[in-house]
Amino acid sequence: MKTQIKEISGSIVAPKGFLASGVFCDIKRLGTGKGSNRGQKRDLALIVSEMPATVAGMFTTNQVCAAPVKVCVERVKTGGHVQTLVVNSGNANACTGKQGMADAREMVSFTERALNLPKGSALVGSTGRIGVTMPMDNVRAGIIEAATLLGSAVGNADQAAEAIMTSDSRSKQIAIEFKLGGKAVRIGGICKGAGMIQPGMSPTGERPATLPHGGLHATMLCFITTDAAIDAKVLQAALNEAVAHSFNRITVDGDMSTNDTVLVLANGLAGNPIVGDEVTSLISKKKSKVRASSRRLLRDFEVFQAALNHVCLELAKMIVRDGEGVHRVVTVRVNGAKTIQDADAAARAVANSALVKTSWHGGDPNWGRIIDAIGYSPATVVEGKIDIGYSAVGGKNILWSLKRGQPTKATFKELCAAVAPKEFELHINLNLGKANAVMYAADLTEAYVDYNKGDVTDPTTLGG
């Protein structure tokens, strides 16, 4: 059964009962460094549910983890209800020690007081420079102002989306509507991210043995609202799945941030029959073994899952397309691997190879660099079985440059034409099994290097 999804306006304020605002409170203060120093760009956002909402989260597995992430992990783990998110750009509040933790805790408690909400009902997100303490006088002033400007107009969502941006060139927003249990349900989301992008997130911020990772090093943040009625455990299960196939499948530069966060609030105001905790025991069962009385619950979950998957994947792709200096976006598809781990390893090796990424930028269909990256990946591969080819995005016709480890008769002109578009797909078949993986990747350009090479004449840029 295919979920009928309609895209609508309003992003995070499209679902019933959600308000948002964004203000400028000069969190960077010095006005130096990269990213958010564009005059008076908004740098603090509030997202508020008029009703207590269930919450789910996914967080960076970087062992160097920012204070706001630690606060969110603590609060989401308790399974309580949340009503507001306070998010700032310009300062990551990472590597800031005890003071950073105190500041993150004050951001949530001050927001709760400013909005007259119960203790424990706020979460926090931060992005920006690493190693700089938060200017809390500015932050408190920003929270107070943002609280007075909350609204449900499209412009309110635009303000919040701007306020979380750093090196992003544009805001990233989406909202959809679909039917769940006979009721119209909406999901909205905003995100930010352009550099330091290869998220590897988990619900606890701890590294599962099977979770792929990038390097230890701007941040991706995503905040999603929905008026669906859904149990917290079920919401977390749905978010785990959605992130696994979206944000954890993108890379701009192979670096994992200290602050990567995805949070979802669900306030239930759509009035659909609640997707309850009992669904969690049905998810892994075959449909034929699910009792008829429980099939509606499972069907409702599948509908919600498909809708959340759509939102997360669309937002994740927006991040890659807006990557720092990005000129081309490439979907890397690996098929025929012995295991999922092998498929993932091969896809990531290709997607993060500097030589491959620079050839993409140059429009060079250099399969030698691709097979080299496959070969040094941890995946089990056999040179004489590897196929490499190109297609249009979503295209069925693949132009193979390599078959069974040997060049095909495809001409250089034909191959150059295949990789000339701003977006295309790279197909790799290892021909060793049935496992597959996908990565949404970006090229590597002179503009990226120029943007990130640093400024040795400006000591204020040290640390992030």
Pick out its properties.
Ubiquitin-like (UB roll); 30% helix; alpha+beta; 464 residues; L-amino peptidase D-ALA esterase/amidase; ten-stranded mixed sheet
Question: Helices and strands in order, then pairings?
Answer:
Layout: E1 6-7, E2 18-23, E3 44-60, H1 67-77, E4 82-91, H2 97-114, E5 122-129, H3 136-148, H4 154-163, E6 172-180, E7 183-192, E8 201-202, E9 221-226, H5 232-244, E10 250-251, E11 261-266, H6 292-321, E12 329-337, H7 340-352, H8 354-362, H9 367-376, E13 387-391, E14 399-403, E15 406-407, H10 412-418, E16 423-429, E17 435-442, H11 446-452
Parallel strand pairs: 4-5, 9-11, 10-17, 12-16
Antiparallel strand pairs: 1-6, 2-3, 3-4, 3-8, 3-11, 6-7, 7-9, 12-17, 13-14, 13-16, 14-15
Helix pairs in contact: 1-2, 2-3, 5-6, 7-9
CATH overall fold name of the largest domain: L-amino peptidase D-ALA esterase/amidase
CATH class of the largest domain: Alpha Beta
Largest β sheet strand count, sense and barrel closure: 10 strands, mixed
- Low-confidence spans: 31-37, 211-217
N-to-C CA distance: 47 Å
Total number of β-strand segments? Answer: 17
What proportion strand? Answer: 15-25%
Mean pLDDT: 92
